[in-house]
Amino acid sequence: MDRFNAMLVFTRIVELGGFAKAADSLQMPRASVTVLIKQLEAHVGVQLLHRTTRQVSPTLDGAAYYQRCVRLLADLEESEGLFRGSQPKGTLRVEMPAAVGRLVVFPALPEFTGRYPQIDLEIGLNDRPVDLIREGVDCVIRGGLTVDDSLVARPLVQMDQMTCASPDYLRAHGVPQSLDDLNGHRMIEYFSSASGKRYGLEFQLGDNVRLINLPKQVSVNSAEGYLAACVAGYGLVQTPRYHVAQQVREGSLQEVLSDCLPPRLALTALYPPHRQLSPRVRVFVDWLVDLCSRPDSGFKR
């Protein structure tokens, strides 16, 4: 039995919650995965996994063994890279907001893949919460405050935001020149499908943030839908500047209240602690930090 290969299979089963998913992820026959786990359990002398018809989960011994395995595998990968002097290689699974991927990451991505040709990227574009461990994701990029202390957080950038609306909406309701002019206006409400939290309009006034809730007819739970509703004329929105730069240039959206800006929004890379030393994660996050700091990234005014 190849113990390191067995550990890799075991950790992937724990992360994905099933033998079949782990086999597909590792591109191995499902029968081989089953045999390896039986051999591993026989070798360590304890049952590592609870198996039911619906799911697979680690036993108490299995959970402790999992933590040891991920550390050993990360150390092995790091050590092999150091002694071989080779470039990082393997599959890197990343999740990020669709707009960040489409407007910022993908235009520059050939630079990264050209520098690290042995890294295969699997990139998910969505705004949904991701269980990095269970879903086998190496790194996730998220906007806003991070609340999961179990993950390593690497700040990428503080994004400038703006308030905007469609020209048709502004013709019908007027262009507000100050916050007092917002009486009689409408907003499009953004809500989180995960937490149910609903977001109004926020304005940075010195060290304080003023929250303003306006009447709304449309609420959405995705960044793309939020902007689509704005272009359709349903009210005011607040969004990172990079996300609407093209629409503002083309005239389908118009910035308002430019003298009273929303607070900046943090963009952060998050990854599990046991992947902190992974060369693939490290070089990708380092590249993201550099990319987001560039003047042409679109994150700053």
Word description of this protein:
- It is a single chain.
- The chain has helices spanning 3-16, 19-26, 30-44, 60-84, 98-115, 132-135, 167-173, 223-231, 241-250, 279-293; strands spanning 49-51, 56-58, 90-96, 119-125, 139-143, 152-159, 161-165, 189-191, 198-199, 201-205, 208-212, 219-220, 237-240, 254-256, 265-271.
- The chain is of the alpha+beta class and 301 residues long.
- It has 3 domains: 3-81, Winged helix-like DNA-binding domain superfamily/Winged helix DNA-binding domain (Arc Repressor Mutant, subunit A), CATH 1.10.10.10; 90-159 and 266-297, Periplasmic binding protein-like II (D-Maltodextrin-Binding Protein, domain 2, 3-Layer(aba) Sandwich), CATH 3.40.190; 161-263, D-Maltodextrin-Binding Protein, domain 2, CATH 3.40.190.10.
- The longest helix is centred in the first third of the chain and has 25 residues, at 60-84.
- The mean pLDDT is 87.
- Residues 1-59 form the HTH lysR-type domain.
